[in-house]
Specification:
Helix 6 (111-118) links the parallel strand 3 and strand 4 (122-126). The mean pLDDT is 95. The protein has helices at residues 2-5, 8-11, 39-48, 61-71, 84-95, 111-118, 135-140, 164-173, 198-203, 232-235, 238-241, 249-259, 262-285, 306-315, 339-352; strands at 26-27, 78-81, 101-105, 122-126, 146-152, 179-183, 208-213, 226-229, 289-291, 297-301, 318-319, 321-322, 331-335. The strands form 3 sheets. The protein has a 7-stranded mixed beta sheet with strand order 2-8-7-6-5-3-4, sandwiched between helices. Strands 9-10-13-12 form a 4-stranded antiparallel beta sheet, covered by helices on one side. Strands 1-11 form a two-stranded parallel sheet. It has 2 domains: 19-36 and 262-352, Aspartate Aminotransferase, domain 1; 39-259, Type I PLP-dependent aspartate aminotransferase-like (Major domain) (Aspartate Aminotransferase, domain 2, 3-Layer(aba) Sandwich), CATH 3.40.640.10. It contains 15 helices and 13 strands. It has 353 residues and is α/β, with parallel strands linked by helices. The protein is globular and about 55 Å long.
């Protein structure tokens, strides 16, 4: 009886598979900040906790003003959400109607597919090319029915990016009728000098939405705070479909403080850069193939069933992510931790291999 009540589109949606953890194990499976939250954010959260009897600002105006100041854009160019996932759902609610084509790359974060299915969009999948988003193939897949293209840069789980020149060429051939959504959840970790300046496209009035989050770089995954940047005409309708009070008081206060904690952010960035290089060397000494990453995680090919291997690592005190659900059954994704965490990771890998 209950099955009859469920929409057909919902029945076909696969369950989301999160990164696992285990008591006592180091968690390197969910791309979280290994240092925890910003100290400034923790102080702001504690202060905001004294006013929890009151609803949060449903427009997140102070946070949006802080973001507007950071990116040199009007406050009307921003909307905040309960994490980047909430932003993706708001975009789906606002812009996808039944029958619209939604272009998504294969072997990427599953929520783009989820959103398209949830709102009865027609999914068009484009394969990766050498673990990278193939912008030429994506552009070639556009038809008159195409409504949205979801891009992710850097890509989860491969850590690869498309360059500024590639994105510029791509945007020149995408019709004005198509909305380009760029998920930049890991953008702050990229050291590339050729990373696309998507904000410039927003400033020029292009039909582009850019998604960022406070979960990764800023260490606030447990609070859920994300935001979207776009020209005001694209952002305004999204306020009609988002739920009231979708960003809680603690998240708003913590995000504002985290945004301004330059000391913590520099520490996070430098640790990621240094430890990433160290892990590359360790993987090479172990004979492991890996993909160089512009994010805070690394895809490693272990050439054996990833689920079993990850279970073995948990028994050795380290949790990493099997990429079976991403379409890479013999690969794992390792979040870059602190020097101490990475030392334990390498020791566990040596035993498991």
């Amino acid at each position: 009886m209950n099955e009859e009540l469920v929409r057909p589109a919902v029945k076909d949606i696969p369950d989301y598979v999160p990164g696992k953890s285990a008591p006592g194990a180091i968690k390197l499976s969910s791309n979280e900040n290994p240092f925890g939250p910003s100290p400034k954010a923790l102080r702001a959260i504690a202060k905001a906790g004294k006013g929890l009897q009151a609803y949060p600002d449903q427009m997140s105006i102070n946070l949006r003003q802080a973001l507007a100041s950071r990116f040199k854009l009007p406050v009307e160019s921003f909307i905040c959400g309960n994490g980047a996932d909430d932003i993706l759902q708001i975009i789906g609610e606002t812009y996808i109607k039944a029958g619209d084509e939604v272009i998504v790359s294969k072997n990427v974060f599953s929520v783009y597919e989820l959103i398209a299915r949830l709102y009865d969009g027609e999914l068009v999948f484009v394969p990766l090319r050498d673990f990278e988003l193939d912008l030429n193939a994506i552009a070639a897949a556009v038809t008159p029915k195409t409504k949205i293209i979801f891009l992710t840069n850097p890509n989860n789980p491969t850590g690869t990016i498309f360059s500024a020149s590639q994105f510029d060429a791509f945007m020149k051939i995408i019709p004005e009728s198509v909305l380009v959504v760029v998920d930049e959840a890991y953008a702050e970790f990229s050291a590339s000098k050729d990373f696309p300046k998507t904000i410039d496209y927003v400033k020029s009035g292009a039909k582009v939405l850019v998604i960022r989050t406070f979960s990764k770089y800023y260490g606030l995954a447990g609070l859920r705070a994300g935001y979207c940047i776009g020209r005001p005409e694209l952002i305004a309708p999204m306020f009609k479909t988002k739920m009231p009070f979708n960003v809680n008081r603690l998240a708003q206060a913590g995000a504002i403080a985290a945004l301004g904690d330059s000391v913590f952010l520099k520490k996070t960035y430098q640790n990621n850069l240094t430890e990433k290089t160290r892990l590359y060397r360790e993987f090479e000494s172990l004979g492991l193939e890996y993909k160089e990453s512009e994010a805070n995680f690394i895809l490693v090919n272990i050439k054996r069933p990833a689920k079993d291997f990850c279970q073995e690592l948990i028994g050795l005190g380290v949790s990493v992510r099997p990429l079976t659900s991403f379409g890479f059954p013999e690969a794992i994704r390792i979040s870059i931790g602190t020097p101490t965490q990475n030392k334990k990771l390498i020791a566990a890998l040596k035993k498991a291999l």
